[in-house]
Write a structure and sequence with these properties.
CATH superfamily: Nucleoside Triphosphate Pyrophosphohydrolase
Number of strands: 13
Shape: globular
Strand content: 25-35%
Radius of gyration: 17 Å
CATH topology: Nucleoside Triphosphate Pyrophosphohydrolase
Largest sheet: 9 strands, mixed
Structural class: alpha+beta
């Protein structure tokens, strides 16, 4: 795992320029330079992403999680960006650690993402796409112009925060500098090679105080668990990348390297 405070992965040694992020935010909120043609396309993707594309087209909600959106429409609409890139060690995922001062999911490693805003558009169509890119930009400094969206997974539910989450799949076609933009939101930004996520030595089961067991990943100093780990686990499984691992190996949620 490489943090973007320590390496040049995907950034050519740069860090995000806050003024650039603020300029793109101004364009978004005022409509200047907005691409209303935002869409999902698989054109030009690297071949190694084909299994993920196929999985996204066929996976059923119940195969992804036991927590599905309430039938009465309750819950706050949100989206996360599951961004695949290609680093020094091959395919990788962009993750971040949430600030410890946040009201929900504080200190947890996660995908970039958050709640839909009115300007994101229709929550049933392109709203989650815009929200995923917008939140990724706000939290990591990512330039969304370098991201190609290639799939959307079924909406899921996070009971503890009442979020209805649309996972949006992206390919980091033109990598840009990323890092902490606002410490109040993000503690760090890092990439994890897919090879580390599939390594059985890094696979564990977490034990929630409620007794619930769930898949997790030990990647350097981070314990990736909960919603994020569950989605990664299912992607690895349905893409055919999963390797046999010891599910009886358990760690508590307060695990530290």
């Amino acid at each position: 795992m490489k943090t973007h405070e320590q390496s040049q992965v995907q950034t050519d040694g740069q860090t995000p320029d806050r003024s650039d992020v603020e300029k793109r935010e101004h364009n978004r909120t005022t409509g200047a330079g907005r691409d209303d043609g935002i869409a999902v396309t698989t054109d030009g993707l690297p071949g190694w992403l084909d299994p993920v594309v196929r999985a996204a087209r066929t996976i059923e909600p119940r195969q992804l999680s036991r927590f599905l959106p309430p039938e009465n429409g309750a819950g706050r609409q949100s989206a996360v960006l599951i961004l695949f890139g290609e680093g020094e060690r091959g395919p990788e995922l962009l993750l971040m650690e949430r600030s410890g001062s946040l009201r929900s999911h504080a200190g947890q490693p996660s995908f970039p993402g958050g709640a839909l805003d009115p300007e994101d558009g229709d929550q049933a169509t392109t709203g989650p796409l815009r929200a995923a890119l917008r939140e990724a930009e706000e939290e990591t400094g990512l330039d969304p112009r370098g991201v190609q969206l290639f799939g959307v997974l079924p909406r899921l539910y996070i009971p503890v925060s009442s979020f209805v989450v649309t996972p949006v799949l992206g390919w980091w076609r033109a990598p840009s500098p990323v890092g902490v933009v606002d410490p109040a939101e993000t503690a760090r930004v890092f990439t994890v090679p897919v090879a580390d996520l599939t390594d059985p030595a890094n696979r564990v089961t977490t034990v929630h105080p409620s007794g619930h067991l769930g898949p997790a990943f030990l990647v350097e100093s981070a314990l990736v668990w909960g919603f994020t780990a569950g989605v990664i686990d299912r992607i690895l499984h349905f893409a055919g990348w999963e390797r046999p691992w010891d599910r009886s190996r358990q760690v508590p949620l307060d695990w530290r390297a």
